[in-house]
Here is the input.
Amino acid sequence: MTIILGIDPGSQKTGFGVIESDGNRHRYLSSGVIRLPLVALPTRLDTIFKSLNTIIDEFSPDQAVVEEVFMAKSAGSALKLGQARGAAVVACVSRDITVAEYTARQIKKAVVGTGAASKEQIQEMVKLLLSLPAAPQEDAADALAAAICHANAGGSLAKMALPDAAGRMRRGRLK
Here is the structure.
C-alpha cells in the first residue's frame, strides 16, 4: 500500500488530503484545509511549509501530488499561487518525497469523468470513492481528488508532462 499526499495549493488556504492506495482500492486517512493568516506572503508561505511538514511527519507519505497552476484572475494572483505551490513542493522534496503534478482538468477527468466538473461534483465523487459519511470541504476534496487521480493513474499521467532527454516537454493526451 502506498500513502499519497494530495495538495491543492493556494495563497489564502491550502487543501490537503492523505489516502492509502494499492492502485485499485483507496482508503481515506486524513484531509483538511490549512488556513493562512492575513499577513505578508512570506509568512503565509512559511505556514504552508511548516504545516505540510507536520502532516508529512504524521502520515509519512510515499508520494505527493500538487495541482498545477492554472491561469488566475491576474498576474499577481498567479504569482502568489505559484509561490504557494513552490512552498508545498519544497516541503515534499526536502523530505525526499516524489512529487507528481497534474492539471485541474486531468484531476477532474480522472475522478469525475469530465475535465469540466464542478466543485460540487468533485466533492460528491470523492465522498463516494472514499466511502466518506459527508463530502469534504472544497479545497480538501480537490486535494483528495488529486491523490486519487495519481493512485488511479499509477503515475502515468504525471510522466506525460516530463521533459525528454533533450529538455523538451513531452505532450500526452487523456482519453
Observations:
- The chain has one domain: 2-159.
- The two ends are 27 Å apart (CA to CA).
- The beta strands are 2-8, 13-21, 26-35, 63-67, 98-102.
